[in-house]
Amino acid sequence: MSIIRVNLGAKSYNIEIAAGLLDTAGEKIRSISKAQRAAVISDSNVDALYGKRLQAALAGSGFKVTRIVFPAGEKSKCLAELAKIYDRLAEAGITRSDLVVALGGGVTGDLGGFAAATFLRGVDYVQIPTSLLAQIDSSVGGKVAVDLPAGKNLVGNFYQPKLVLIDTMLLKTLPVRFLHDGLAEAIKYGCIRDRALFEKIAAMRDDDELLENIGGIVERCCAIKAEIVEHDEFDTGERMVLNFGHTIGHAVEKCSNYESFTHGEAVGIGMLLLTRQTELFGLTERETAAAIYDVLKKYNLPVDADYGNEELLKAAGMDKKKSGSSITLVILKNIGTSFLQKTNWQDLPEYIKRG
Ligand SMILES: NC(=O)c1ccc[n+]([C@@H]2O[C@H](COP(=O)([O-])OP(=O)(O)OC[C@H]3O[C@@H](n4cnc5c(N)ncnc54)[C@H](O)[C@@H]3O)[C@@H](O)[C@H]2O)c1
Ligand SMILES: [Zn+2]
Predict the structure, then answer these.
(1) pLDDT surpasses 60 at 210
(2) How many A from CA of 106 to the centre of ligand 1?
(3) H or E segment at 26?
(4) Domains 2-173 and 176-350 share a fold
(5) pLDDT for position 250
(6) Quick one: pLDDT band at residue 320, thresholds 50, 70, 90?
(7) Which residues lie below 8 Å from residue 319, measured CB to CB, with a gap of 6+?
(8) Which CATH number fits domain 2-173: 3.40.50.1970, 3.40.50.1000, 3.40.50.10190, 3.30.1330.40?
(9) Fewer CB within 10 Å, N or C, the chain?
(10) How far is CA 339 from CA 67, 264, 328, in A?
(11) What is the mean pLDDT of residues 4-21?
(12) Which atom of ligand 1 is nearest to the CA of 73?
């Protein structure tokens, strides 16, 4: 087992990573909480697979458990579903000294985390992420949110968990498309900070070998994210480096109406398209885009999207990270080294260019 400490003063917490952690979650959570009641929030898929096991583990450590289940999918990350969760928390008699546990993917973490952040002005919560994306990205860093019809993550907060428990065995039931979706973010961490991580992912023979080695990959990704978050809890500077591939990625997601491409798939396309251009400008070492292309292909991740440059630019212009007349792009020097570059808005077409 490995433990990564996220140092945020009074809000510090541990990320514990091991295969099989779910069944010991009761003791682990008891060590950080005196709560009488625990509300476990999950989506319908994850609850059916793991809800009872977690309930038993928590009950074994003296928690009175209520399971709150919402329909799986991004559509549930909304105010209507949040309101239902508040009602269930109230019915269960959750008080400010009780606990919320978010058991699931990024949707559950964001929705359950935001419910915890706001119910009774804040109740302690624990993340037990079950998708690869949630294990390496959304469960760490304290961003919680719901979507509005006007856009994703428009209502939210920074609210750190008390503990993150990562059981990599749970990934065995994750549909392969979501495994690869999360892997795109792991590839991103390799690109921005860790060449050895990138090479490790690229060297795996197949998904079986990947899953056998996933513990080490998850650990490295969490360590990188934890370090970045420690330096920039509220996302005003260094944390922007995590957005590598995301300006174009968000544009691709938007053009596809959030349907044809998952987030990770769109980010993969974004990393590749941007790096092709920055290589042409001499900002990025040669062969970097080719290395990204090869690893995306290996995991059946798409390497292009059939949208025109104009269409992508328009969608990127709506990106909420746009501020004033310039936009900050994350650019690779090579695999493992990245830098931030403020770019004039009018120069963006040079960077968002297909073909
Ligand atoms: N807070 C952050 O910092 C942050 C960062 C990145 C993404 N996000 C958010 O995360 C969300 C996407 O997360 P996601 O891709 O995990 O989506 P998700 O939570 O919808 O999970 C994807 C699918 O996998 C299923 N699933 C999850 N774990 C499983 C398991 N172990 N076995 C079988 N099925 C399983 C889910 O039921 C769902 O159908 C988005 O809403 C995004 O905005 C948040
Ligand atoms: Zn992302």
Answers:
(1) yes
(2) 3
(3) helix 25-30
(4) no
(5) 93
(6) very low
(7) 247, 250, 251, 327
(8) 3.40.50.1970
(9) C
(10) 44, 21, 10
(11) 97
(12) 20
More confident site: 284 or 346: 284
d(Cα 12, Cα 5) in Å, to the nearest integer?
Answer: 7
Cβ < 6 A, ligand 1 pocket? 43, 45-46, 49, 72-74, 77, 104-108, 110, 130-131, 133-134, 137-138, 141, 143, 152-153, 170, 173-174, 178, 181
What is the architecture of the domain spanning 176-350?
A: Up-down Bundle (1.20)
**In the chain, where the domains are located:** 2-173, 176-350
Give the atom of ligand 1 at the shortest distance from the alpha carbon of 107: 19
Q: How far is CA 212 from CA 182, 201, 209, in A?
A: 16, 12, 5
User: Is pLDDT at 323 greater than 60 in this prediction?
Assistant: no
pTM of the model: 0.96
Comparing 323 with 50, the larger pLDDT belongs to 50
- Rounded distance, CA 210 to CA 174, Å? 13
CA dihedral for 33, 37, 42, 47, sign (positive or negative): positive
Query: Whole-angstrom Cα distance, residue 117 to residue 121?
Result: 7
Q: What was the pLDDT predicted at 102? A: 98
Token pair listed for 336:
């493992």
- Cα gap 246→191, rounded to integer Å: 13
Distance CA 33, CA 49 (A): 25
Average pLDDT, the chain: 95
Task: Tell me what the mean pLDDT of segment 280-291 comes to.
Answer: 98
Choose one of 178, 265, 267 to mutate for the ligand 1 pocket test, by most ligand atoms within 8 angstroms of C-beta. 178
CB-CB contact of 22 with 54 (8 Å): yes
